[in-house]
Please model this.
Amino acid sequence: MSLCECFAPGNAPLRRLTMLALAIASVCATAAPDGNSPDPLTTPDASGWLRTFTPAGTIDTGNPFFQSLGTNGRSCNSCHRQAQGWTVTPAELQQRFSATQGTDPIFRTNDGSVSPFADVSTVAARRNAYAMLLNRGLIRVGLPIPANAQFSLTAVDDPYHYASAAELSLFRRPLPATNLGFLTTVMWDGRETAAPFLPPMDAGVDSADLDASLTSQAKDAVLGHAQGAAAPSAAVLAQIVGFESSLSTAQIRDDYAGLLNNDDALGGPRVLANLRFHVGINDALGADPTGAAFDPSAMHLFDAWATQHGNGRSERARAAIQRGEVLFNTFPITITGVAGLNDVTGQPSIQGHCSTCHDTPNVGNHSVGAPLDIGLTVAARRTPDMPLYTLTNNQTGASVQTTDPGRALLTGKWADIGKFKGAILRGLAARAPYFHNGSAATLMDVVNFYDTRFNIGLDAQQKQDLAAFLAAL
Model:
């Protein structure tokens, strides 16, 4: 029987044994001989250890992913670092800035600075020019108002005096270059998605679409971020995509709970790498092509810790993580005002849970392409370092203010303003800050945002438990 069959519905006992065997193997592979130090694939982060699993057991640093293929010294690795969950973080970027006085290849004015014309003549000037990278880990994406848009740009408040209808400045987090097999949309706004990821009837990932999307992303990254003079060859792009697609990354150890695959728990990247997945799996709106009903209990990594007892530090930490998982699956949320969900279903109010939107089992992203506007870009949440754009509906005259129109800059649709995809939730502890715009500095800030946005009513202990669970992913 294949591993995919072991993880298929109806094989729960065998699935459990298979996942347990993988978890035990991961413990052996993670701990060094002294039982303390991580191996090269394991790196420390804010709450413990992050581990990347590869089929070969090593990171192939000879891959073109690590090579400068453009004209400005950048490689894919400039913005996608192993120890930061294959993205970048302000703390690590500040270290690079200090070590190079702001000349590391990531610090380039084409998209690393607050505007292409920022002064970079001195160290102090460079510190100001690259402030969004240094303070929030944000790259500037420049996109125009589409020619066929249903809206016009009627006002710009840009603290950097650059943005216009010809090129809006959009500050966004580089997405992790790992766990890519679970993607249904490539890039926050979906602009590198080669074709719609439709649920295939054979319940298998439509790899042609995913490969084409990742290939397009790699090519455009070389031409844009690295300012390449020409696109890499098909062979080079295939090597990059093959490398990225081989990576699985997750938290493997919590400083208080210990190894996250001990005592029958299923944390860590080895189990993640072998999870069954197909586009539409466990979709909350019934798009699973197998016909399976939505199960809000999408997370089962720490079920086994529910039966453990004790009052030691590790036992208390494990209990908090497990309680957070239960809250993620079951705590009621009244979902309102989410464009892309409430409007498309015709339901002003939807009774759901965290897993209603984060529905991919044990992964946590959308299992279908589902760009949503959860209110991250509204004027009320704008900070002084962000541009603010006033968009006016060409037909109705209605206006909205936003720090980032999101998917609307691809489709030109008024209804798409502020919509973004949800990110994969594994390996979160290593890659703060969170959301597309880095507006949540910590996982507790993420929990507080949702609690306030949807008036969930979590108490202090529940918030701590949810944050502990998210940090253990």
